[in-house]
Amino acid sequence: MTPARLKPKQSETHLGAFRMDQTTGTNAGKPRSFQEIILRLQNYWAAKGCAILQPYDMEVGAGTFHPATTLRSLGTQPWAAAYVQPSRRPTDGRYGENPNRLQHYYQYQVLMKPSPPDMQALYLGSLQAIGIDMGLHDVRFVEDDWESPTLGAWGLGWEVWCDGMEVSQFTYFQQVGGHDCHPVSGELTYGLERLAMYVLGIDHVMDMPFNDPHSPIPLTYGDIFRQTEEEYSRWNFDVADTAILLQHFIDAETECARILDQAAEDPKTGKRIVMAHPAYDQCIKASHLFNLLDARGVISVTERQAYIGRVRTLAKRCADAFVTTPAGGWAA
Amino acid sequence: MPDLLIELFSEEIPARMQTRAAEDLKSRVTNGLVEAGLTYAGAAAFSTPRRLTLAIQGLLDKSPTLREERKGPRVDAPEKAIEGFLRGAGLTRDQLIERDEKKGRVFYALIEKPGRPAAEIIAEVLEDTIRNFPWPKSMRWGAGSLRWVRPLHRILCVMTTEAGSEIVAMDVDGITASNVTEGHRFMAPAPFAVHSFEDYAAKLKRAHVILSAEERAEAIWHDATNMAFASGLEVVQDKGLLAEVAGLVECPVVLMGQIGAAFLDLPPEVLQTSMKEHQKFFSVKNPKTGRIERFITVANRETADHGATILAGNQKVLSARLSDAKFFWENDLRVAKSEAGLSVWTDQLSNVTFHNKLGSQKDRIERIAALARELAPMVGADADHAEQAARVAKADLQSQMVGEFPELQGLMGRYYAAAAGLPSDVAAACQEHYSPLGPSDDVPTAPVSVAVALADKLDTLTGFWAIDEKPTGSKDPFALRRAALGVVRLILNNDLKVSLLETVWRAFSDLPDALLETTLEKIADFEDQVANYLDMDVNEVFDARLSREDKSGELTLTNAMAENPLSQLIEIGPRALLGFDLLNFFHDRLKVYLRDEGIRHDVIDACLAMPGNDNLSLLVARARALSDTLKTEDGTNLVQGFKRANNILSQAEEKDGVEYSFGADPKYASDPAEHALFDALDLAEAKITPAMTSEDFATAMQAMAAMRPAVDAFFDAVQVNADSDVLRRNRLNLLSRIRTICLQVADLTKLDG
């Protein structure tokens, strides 16, 4: 790998001086900030032919919930997308004090369908792109099968270790929403904060430079998120109104079912419009509301399974609907 | 004769599956080859994270020609029959031969299957093996439909002879067999061709891959122990971890690192578990202090900086992990040492469901505490301590540490109970009450631990019995067989004299009626079963039950059963039958356990048929004594004598319609052998009766076996069915004494042979 260096322009230097070869998506040298790592990943996967999508505009627990992964892994249509997804796990909130735990964090997600034969090599290339020198580090693929009881999904793959640290999840989807995946999608999930902390050599997430530390106004991760972590931790654990959350859960569940109960043919336009995505939005909502209720500690062990089962039922119905849409491979 | 080399090269195979997979590859391919007529001299299988390899030596280069002669219909058989025969044989009429036989002239077909070249057979067998490989879990990838544990990239299949090597032509879902493989993923990724197993092994070695898992494990262990030794330390042995780590690397490089000083005060088990479970590190301890001071990690590559970067990274990850553990440990200790102590956690257990029908963990603890108290005197434990231990034994399930490391349950309980200032036998019981888990697990001996361990397991068993969730076939989701074996081993190892039946009845009585409702409804034939158990008339049971219907009394664990079994059973009601059923389950476990000890099943049956069979210590003492007796010549011969006596007696009793149980009178003895038998019986009885009273089965059985010469001599010299009716009756009554004496020791009629 000998990247032809582009001479950085003045303005780029300001923005963080990421030195990117636009044709191969590879870089030289160590990144200097959280955002540079994200930008390098974006460039790398763009160069490998992925559509670079934007985050989904709803609260989700993981990048997998983005319809670009969940729904697009279904059906026969080829797909290749990469995106950052802000993710929320209310129970992981630590008021911004824990060096590694956050209730709001970022995942980088790549989904390729069908999974290309050189997906492992592509993935390793992305680690190099963010400055991990394969000649010095020990990268390993350690068995870790993935299962999402709420999505009715499972796959086989690994957690990827770099010097003993889990830096990504690598999964070949076998089933989503109760449907066998054919072709199979390859999914990569990078926990961005943890990965970036490792690459940048940072011990506390809040100390991590978000933009280039040499910027006129250098900002750390803490400058941006310490206060919000504190606010959400308090709300998630102690303040959120559980009666309202529960009602919202029921509303989302009801609306999801109602959407899917509509006839495929739209009486107004006369077209066939199966509303898989609006229904799936309600499923995402229900899932997040369940997480909030869980953080408030009002769901008992036995109820837990029942709630997860309710969300799964929605996810399955959405999957059933999606495969009857054009994006899901349905042809009239 | 050619050699064959097969390598299936894939993405990383889970470490835990590799060894088995290599063996499966070997057995499936070699079985397939042999079935097709290709025998071989030797075969060896290997595995690494990315490959399964099979090397076969001395394979036939083609399968032998097979000739088969098939008998057909008679020449004058209907046309249809002959046509069918021809179709089956794949021949035409003129190829058949005719032979004269007793029943006429018959067609014969001589079918010759020519041998096939090895390559053709190998290709078929290997394809079949790949397509039907018994992975515990397999997957599809890309747009294909082939299943493998992870995506399969290459099939290497090469036959080697003196003349050279050739690729076995085959293709499985677009993967074409070749003679090419790859080395270490990072250190030597370039593909290379091979022409024989020796060439393959040598080139792999050069490409930084150690093919044999044992060799990798040995290298790791060798380097690790040397490295630790050089620092005056030693590696904590862990065979499972060693095998797993050997399955995670192709090129093991051992590195030793420091554990931060801040973490050295954590309990050693916490350090070890955290390092092993999360990081696959070996623990390195100081033999002088017993403390774990360093770790060993195994990297999959050599680096220019001799692993400095890798070690620094691993050390950093470990610090983060141990910071968590330390945080949990300190928080937990704060709770344990607080005024409320462990009750903070036990109170929370009322919110934790044990099973949706059997209630919360807290409900369960109440039952275990009551039972442990009840059992305490029988196992020699202090009742207060036993109850207290039962109340805190599950507290650690709510601790943060056990939340993070479930495998530390019990052990953390012990630490926290000690921190809470509880007595040491109570703290020990927190850890030991889970034992024994497996058949080779240590059995607790401390009385308080024994009481809680028994109560815990008995509550589990009676609970699931009550809701009719018994193990079936291979399904035992609540590990009830393990629990029952645990009870058996606790009783036997501690030589406890416990009436299991009364104990489980007691446990059943603590379960609410509503819980048992549906199960009890199934027990419709209560009277029948009780009658059967007590060997009584069913109407008698029925009447007794009716007469007691309006009375209700507290169930007491006395010897009421022995004094008045019928009223006792009626008192307990249908729950009594659940007890019998559960006792059978214990007996089944016991049989398996004793079989492993070399005690025959019929010996166990002979002892099970005796009263008091719910006292397992007694039952086993009897079985062991009987088993030992049967190993002596006197013992086996005496059993033959007993059976002979019993047969003659039974036939006579059936014929005469009477039972010969009056004492025989020596004055009618005519033969010296008969006199001698009287003496022998008197002698035996004088020894057996007191021995049985003191449960000294060995002495009783020796005395029984000692009757043998007299019994044998009697049968040699005396004819039982004498012409004189008086003599005959007296002799039959004499045989009856033999029977009675023997049957009080064990039910010898149940013995084989």
UniProtKB/TrEMBL annotation, chain B:
It is an enzyme of class 6 (ligase). It is found in: Cytoplasm. Its EC number is 6.1.1.14. It catalyses: tRNA(Gly) + glycine + ATP = glycyl-tRNA(Gly) + AMP + diphosphate. One of its GO terms (molecular function) is ATP binding. PANTHER family: GLYCINE--TRNA LIGASE, CHLOROPLASTIC_MITOCHONDRIAL 2 (PTHR30075:SF2), GLYCYL-TRNA SYNTHETASE (PTHR30075). The lineage of its organism: Bacteria, Pseudomonadati, Pseudomonadota, Alphaproteobacteria, Rhodobacterales. The keyword Protein biosynthesis applies. Its main location: cytoplasm. It comes from Puniceibacterium antarcticum. Keywords: Aminoacyl-tRNA synthetase, ATP-binding, Cytoplasm, Ligase, Nucleotide-binding, Protein biosynthesis. Belongs to the class-II aminoacyl-tRNA synthetase family. This is Glycine--tRNA ligase beta subunit. One of its GO terms (biological process) is glycyl-tRNA aminoacylation. The keyword ATP-binding applies. GO terms for cellular component: cytosol. Residues 642-740 form the DALR anticodon binding domain. NCBIfam families: glyS (TIGR00211). Tetramer of two alpha and two beta subunits.
